[in-house]
Amino acid sequence: MIENIPTSTIRGLAIGLAEIVGDAKKDKPLKGPFSNADCVFYSYTVERYEQSGRSSKWVTIAKGDSSYCPFLLNDGTGEIMVFPKGAETFLSLDYEFGTGWEKPLPSNLVEFMNRNSIAYRDLFGTHKLRFKEYHIYPGDKAYILGTARNVSSHMNDHREKLRERLVKLKKDPKGMAEIDLNKDGNISPEEWDLAVAKIETEILEEELKSSEVTTSSPEIIIAKGEAEKIFILSDYSQKDLIGKLLWQSILGIYGGAALAMVMLLNVAYHLVILRF
Amino acid sequence: MVLIIILGILFFLALGTILYFVSVYNGLIVISRNIDKAWANIDVLLKQRYDEIPKLLKVCEGYMKYERETLEKITFARTACLQARTVGESAQAENQLSGALKTLFAVAENYPDLKANQNFMQLQQRVSYLESQIADRREFYNDSVNVYNIRIAQIPDMWVASMLKMAPKEFFKIAEEERKDVDIKFNFPK
């Protein structure tokens, strides 16, 4: 699929499934939850090492991303807003931290675990944990295969709407209390960023819904399509991404065939045993 | 036991081959439809440009009474575009129209009153932007045609393509004249 769709320029983009490549940007960059690095998109996982008898494995105990928060892509011919909700991401690992002997959990990670109510220690000490974070940094070349969709001309007022709602939120003590997640009476920069991202998502979803009934002055965004389910977001080049996916599909096909053969042999073996 | 294993292997080989050919067939159909869609997307912009041209000519007429030939060329090229039926005919007519528009904008440089006209400025911007968009979509269309033409010439896709009588598609070519600078002749009375 990736090989069969040529890359479009943003200026010449038409509605439907499209592949675009450009520099990622965001007016107010996000902060990586573990590294605190500036980025336009992040995803993370927290894994715990679990041992049961003789077997052991890493189990994902928390994961998340900033898919609720749109960013911009510029390819030199134009700029387009990307709404990453529902995207399958292929990103290079940018931050990794594992707890272990003389490697206690740093304070920012302790705070993250507490804020998200994730247990990280028991009577015997801190669990063996692994934190991974993947980013698209501002200025990174991003590859996107997604659906170009119309949104109403109200998209132009996106920032204005966001500003109005934030002003309204600041004047609403009940709303401010709701965004104070740790209930310490203060709104931390992280809590404020989360609130901004949530409002931005609400506005974008309203705009996406309204695009179904209005056709005046269309603006285009890239998002997950309704008919086209494919939506890929990556910071790898197209060539590297194809290589990565090719290995996955080869493993899937041959692994599946090998498994089927083993099952067939197993059935045949049992049939022979039953017969004799 | 050996017979069952051999039959099993043969079954999986046959199943794998059928599935592979089905995926090749589906792939070719998708690529072929993508070309149709890419062409339709160019067509949308071409129609938008045709709609803008009469307005542009109307604004120019008042100022460029000595450039009748240039304006007529645009009208003639626009009519040819509307009558084009195949990709080849469209490409040829489009190249003529783009060339004529380039000449018009270049000649307009010599008419300060026209250049200062708000309507002309807006229409010029709009037509130029549409021209850039058409160029981008033409490139996309040619890339799609290239992917398709390569696929139907490769083994094993060519076997499926020949069964379906799929022929190579035509590129939307840019004429040599398009690449050259515009030759401007002013028709002021001596």
From TrEMBL, chain B:
UniProt topology in membrane: Single-pass membrane protein
Principal cellular location given in the protein's record: membrane
Cellular component GO terms, alphabetical: membrane
Subcellular location: Membrane
Keywords: Membrane, Transmembrane, Transmembrane helix
Coiled-coil segments on the chain, per record: none
Key word tRNA-binding present: no
Pfam families per record: LemA
Transmembrane segments: 6-31
Calcium recorded as keyword: no
InterPro entries assigned: LemA-like_dom_sf, MamQ_LemA
Protein family membership: Belongs to the LemA family.
Protein name: LemA family protein
